[in-house]
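User: Please fill in residues for this 344-position structure.
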């Protein structure tokens, strides 16, 4: 799950041109390319939720998964990150802290712990679903006004959907599930902090990945070396290592951020966020064959409410000027909420 600082990007209007020398073949249109990239991104987001739930049944420990999550992108992008080292180093400390805490080690460990105590449906719905609510609170605290119109309705639907998910564990009390749900709420709040922090940095998607992964890998490595977090990487099965390397390292850590940025450039931020909101639904459907999780009535009620709420919460008011083009001194008091991917 990786958001990228691409809010406000518009889809180009150029048309596909057949490549020279192949008159019978037509390249996919920019819209088709963007939709393909977005569908792959949604599948990766769903895989993150499934892996958060499946980690407890694997031979890997949370620290091992974190090392793969943050280490693989660094290895793959090392030359590109070296060229961007000055821009990354120039990021203001406040914005860097938001990004590193919001999507780094604290977020990752909270998501993994919450997934171990609940289900894939909880991870795939609560973590991304509650982000618009937390972002709204953060933006209001920063003086950007209260949400209005469809955004208010969307936030209300999100809250109702989360309540529908957890109500059956309140009476009688299931302390384990409630602890897991609470931990997932913490993870969602951290991801909202990350989303807001991305608005304060001037980095491309590759630079944003580097700013997140480099300190996160250093922190998790230090915690492992000092024995604060246990590791089982040396004795883990090759299959589990390969699975988490692909899903967490290459998928979530690298491909999701780059593909989501590509989709936004081709489709626009609003269309991308609407399609991306289908991620919780994909998680529920995939959890049945992959993890054997049968959706409960609470899931069947809560997930559609959260999905609809994310769609409404990400809708822009047409009359408002794009935040990316308005100088900070003249931005409207009540700006639209930042678009947030459906999965963190």
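Assistant: Residues filled in for all 344 positions:
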């Amino acid at each position: 799950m990786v958001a990228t600082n691409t809010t406000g990007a518009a889809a180009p209007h150029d048309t596909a041109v057949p490549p020279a020398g192949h008159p019978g073949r037509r390249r996919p249109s920019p819209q088709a390319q963007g939709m393909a990239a977005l569908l792959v991104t949604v599948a990766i987001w769903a895989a993150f939720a499934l892996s958060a739930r499946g980690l407890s049944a694997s031979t890997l420990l949370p620290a091992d998964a974190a090392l793969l999550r943050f280490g693989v992108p660094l290895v793959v992008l090392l030359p590109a990150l070296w060229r961007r080292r000055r821009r990354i180093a120039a990021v203001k400390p406040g914005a860097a802290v938001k990004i590193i805490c919001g999507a780094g080690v604290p977020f990752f460990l909270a998501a993994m712990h919450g997934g171990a105590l609940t289900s894939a449906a909880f991870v795939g719905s609560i973590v991304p679903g509650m982000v618009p609510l937390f972002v709204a609170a953060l933006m209001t605290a920063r003086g950007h006004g209260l949400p209005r119109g469809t955004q208010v309705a969307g936030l209300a639907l999100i809250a109702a959907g989360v309540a529908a998910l957890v109500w059956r564990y309140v009476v009688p009390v299931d302390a384990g599930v409630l602890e897991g749900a609470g931990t997932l709420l913490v993870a969602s709040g951290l991801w909202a902090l990350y989303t807001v922090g991305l608005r304060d940095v001037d980095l491309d998607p590759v630079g944003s990945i580097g700013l997140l992964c480099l300190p996160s890998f250093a922190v998790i490595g230090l915690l492992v070396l000092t024995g604060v977090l246990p590791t089982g990487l040396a004795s883990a099965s090759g299959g589990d290592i390969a699975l988490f390397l692909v899903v967490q390292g290459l998928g979530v850590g690298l491909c999701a951020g780059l593909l989501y940025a590509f989709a936004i450039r081709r489709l626009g931020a609003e269309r991308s966020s609407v399609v991306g909101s289908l991620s919780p639904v994909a998680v529920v459907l995939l959890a049945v064959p992959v993890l054997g999780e049968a959706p409960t009535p609470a899931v069947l009620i809560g997930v559609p409410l959260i999905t609809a709420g994310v769609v409404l919460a990400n809708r822009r008011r047409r009359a408002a000027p794009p935040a990316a083009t308005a100088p900070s001194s003249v931005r409207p008091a009540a700006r639209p909420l930042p678009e947030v991917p459906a999965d963190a």
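For context: The radius of gyration is 20 Å.
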